[in-house]
Amino acid sequence: MTSFLEFSKTLEKISQTTKRLEIIDILCDYFSDILSNYNTINNTTENKNNVDNESEIKEMLTSTLYLLTCTIYPSYYNKELGIGETIIIKLIADYSCSKEKVIKEKYKKIGDLGDLISNTTSKARIGQLNINTANKTNKKEKNCLSVVSVLKVLREVSYTTGKNSVDTKKKLLLNLMMKIDEEKNIQLKYLIRIFECKLKIGLALKTVLIALGKSFYYYYNRNNDENNKEEINVNEIIKTAYNRLPNFDLLVDNLLKYKIEDLLEHTSITVGIPLKPMLAQPSKDLNMALSKVEKGEYNDNSDDENEYIEEKKKIETSNDDFPEKEKIENKEKVDINNLQQSDLPSYRAEFKYDGERLQIHRNHDNVYIYSRNSENLIERYNELIKVVKMMECKEFIIDTEVVAYNKEKKSIEQFQTLVTRKRKLDEKETKKCQLDSFFKKEEKGNEIISVENKIQDNKNNSSNICVFVFDILFCNGKSTIELPYEERRKILNKNITPIKNEIEFAIGYDLDINLNVIKNNNFTNDGIELNTIDDLFLFAIQSNCEGLILKKYGPSSPYLPSKRTFNWIKVKEDYLQSVGDSLDLIVMGAYYGKGKRKNFYGTFLLGAYNERNNRIEALTKIGTGFSDADLERYFKELKRVDVMPKEYCGNDIIPDVWIDPINIWEVKSASLSTSNTYLCAKDLFYNSYGMSKGISLRFPRYIKDRKDKNIEDSTTTDTIFMLYQQKNNEESIEEEF
């Protein structure tokens, strides 16, 4: 059984480097050590022992994966620890027999609860603790902590609800802490960080998956001569497998059964398990975007080395004008006005709705509804269950957007109307629904038990909504994501029957090579003729939509889960302005207001997510676009933290209050500019221009709160850099998971 001590030592090694390749190697070695026991499994003669040992290896690997990603179940289970900073401080106080006030003061100085407890000297006065479970801990139990046992306790904590649940959770977690030897405080450091759901070592999910894939590849090819090893893209295979089936238990199960090169053949999307949605590429310059579509580009650069960056380094000179680079890049550009009919595929322009992305699954009587980040939203949109069951097709996965909708006026309402809907039922309603049954798997197999038969209508979610369907990913037992976009549309139209004012197809029109609307399909329901993409764009805006999504037809147009691709181009109203798209930014901090705002926060510090380094980089301050009600609400709701989170990178920018990075705001700005103060995308800027500058926003304005998004869904520093380059008519550098 893999010890938690070895796991913690591995995390400590990772914390000593910022190089992703080194981190991958460290993790790969760790996974390989676990798999070395699997070698014994295959040599076991007794089938029963073989099965038992294989099950043990699987449990060790999956437990490790969950702890490495600070999760306890797949995201669609909607199960969390429910442990806040206050409870963790109380745990440390009880553990060290100190007063909470003392721990808080130390926390302010040290800035990290994990580092704080690793410096705790002893557990004096254990006998005085009024914790029965802690008193039962004896020396034999010490040093027996494993990754499996830690995960089991965390899962038990996640199910602890109701009266006295906080005290019960504290007992369970404190008992876990007491099993660690005082001299092995490195375990306490990472145990506390797991309680916080933040390892703070720059470890991203993508890195974990790549290391896992490489370790299995090395395991299956351990006896092969280097020259005889088949060249395969391990990184792409493991990421694609996870994107199709984002469940560590199922992923490891398949890895233990099949070689890496055969993994995708046995990994299919499954009704009831959400996959990460395909994303559209924002673009300020439609001409440039379409030239990328024509060349079949999408965001998926090499994982181990950003070959494009390295190539640009060779081209660049010390001269700021980069004449050689400009000549090469201009040569690659395509003027869409001069292309012939055969040179560029046709497109479909669909409305870009201002709502919430929903992935709706149906398996006969079972209905599942997921957000763009795989959160289960069956409670929030429970009225859709009856509507989905009215559809003739009994088995499907559809990609949709739900909007607030006035069914009398047949018009789309503001996004904020949708945001006010409750995401979850209250405690009494939850008990009636017996939601815990949703999270429990049957002993045989991995069936997901639907909750929809156990949910009653939520009266608080009675506002009108309408779902607009724009793609189909699975239909009647078969995956459709590998099919071209045109084929998926045919399957969608054939199998999904719209229900008026409830579930309808996204409004869209086919375009020719010159972006003119195809005749015989160019009139609105009101008889208005649409001839060009400009007509469509204006029609979308007048229909209370954000703009258009331009989608590529042709053989190279599959649905790519989790990819941000130029097969789909997002053209929002901002396209007519400077930046080209609104940005989804992370709230990092706040400044107290003055004058009219003296009782609230007046301005806020926002940042963008650097997914390569797992850091949040300061981008701008914002103080416009807020109503008085917004400021009052955020003053109450934003979660303050005493010290700057370790993942923040702000070049000594210090707000009055640090905010926990869980809030995503949509922001518009006039333009992007270089900055010596804000160092967002500094690494990319240096690689491309050789200057230690960052990027900032000019005249940012708050638009709305994006409660449907988390950090991973926010605008990345790579996208910020790409938008800056588009402003300067340069090729972009981007990397997508």
From TrEMBL:
DNA damage keyword on record: yes
Record-linked Pfam families: DNA_ligase_A_C, DNA_ligase_A_M, DNA_ligase_A_N
Top EC group: ligase
Domain of life: Eukaryota
Catalytic reaction(s) noted: ATP + (deoxyribonucleotide)n-3'-hydroxyl + 5'-phospho-(deoxyribonucleotide)m = (deoxyribonucleotide)n+m + AMP + diphosphate
GO terms, molecular function: ATP binding; DNA binding; DNA ligase (ATP) activity
Sequence ranges assigned to domain ATP-dependent DNA ligase family profile in this UniProt record: 458-610
Keyword terms, alphabetized: ATP-binding, Cell cycle, Cell division, DNA damage, DNA recombination, DNA repair, DNA replication, Ligase, Nucleotide-binding
Matches recorded under InterPro entries: ATP-dep_DNA_ligase, DNA_ligase_ATP-dep, DNA_ligase_ATP-dep_C, DNA_ligase_ATP-dep_cent, DNA_ligase_ATP-dep_N, DNA_ligase_N_sf, NA-bd_OB-fold
Its EC number(s): 6.5.1.1
GO biological process: cell division; DNA biosynthetic process; DNA recombination; DNA repair; lagging strand elongation
Recorded family membership: Belongs to the ATP-dependent DNA ligase family.
Name of the protein in its database record: DNA ligase 1
Source organism of the structure: Spraguea lophii (strain 42_110)
